[in-house]
Design a protein that fits this description.
The protein is of the alpha+beta class. Helix content is about 25%, strand content about 45%. The protein has an eight-stranded antiparallel β-sheet, with no helix packed on it. The radius of gyration is 24 Å and the shape is globular. The termini are far apart.
Length: about 140
């Protein structure tokens, strides 16, 4: 093989690598953009928002009460009267406490909590309708 063929082949290899890298970069940019568009909605109540079943749930912990706000894919409030939730919470001393959240008006499920937890409120929330599980979400919220 002559030197000129080696140079041409090397250039073609570099061009293919550059094209592949460019395509990969664009793919990552568009994937990130699509992910941002499908991401969680704004936390309207100062909590943490996670997907939970077909809804999004914003969990807020304030003044001894834990509240789950339900919204749909259009960011509209969901009537919470048809739902309940169970939160498995990591309490102080690595103990798990179960909290039953019940309808509390509009799009809220809530319960009082009467135990201590560390600097973060860590919970796995299971959303239910009747006795059917609709979804689960994990929350990790800084205590205020």
């Amino acid at each position: 093989m002559s030197n000129s063929n080696q140079v041409a082949t090397g250039s073609a290899l570099i061009s293919r690598r550059t094209a592949s890298l460019g395509a990969l970069t664009l793919g990552l940019i568009f994937a990130g953009h699509a992910s941002a568009e499908k991401g969680h909605s704004h936390a309207a109540n100062g909590g943490q928002v996670q997907s939970i079943g077909k809804f999004e749930g914003e969990l807020v912990v304030k003044q001894g009460t834990v509240t789950l706000y339900l919204i749909d894919e259009s960011e509209q409030k969901v009537d919470a009267s048809q739902y309940s939730a169970t939160a498995a919470v990591l309490a102080k001393g690595n103990e798990t406490k179960i909290v039953e959240l019940r309808p509390a008006g509009e799009n809220k499920l809530a319960s009082r909590i009467d135990f201590q937890f560390d600097s973060k409120f860590r919970a796995t929330v299971t959303l239910k309708s009747d006795s059917h599980e609709l979804g689960k979400a994990r929350y990790n919220i800084d205590a205020k």
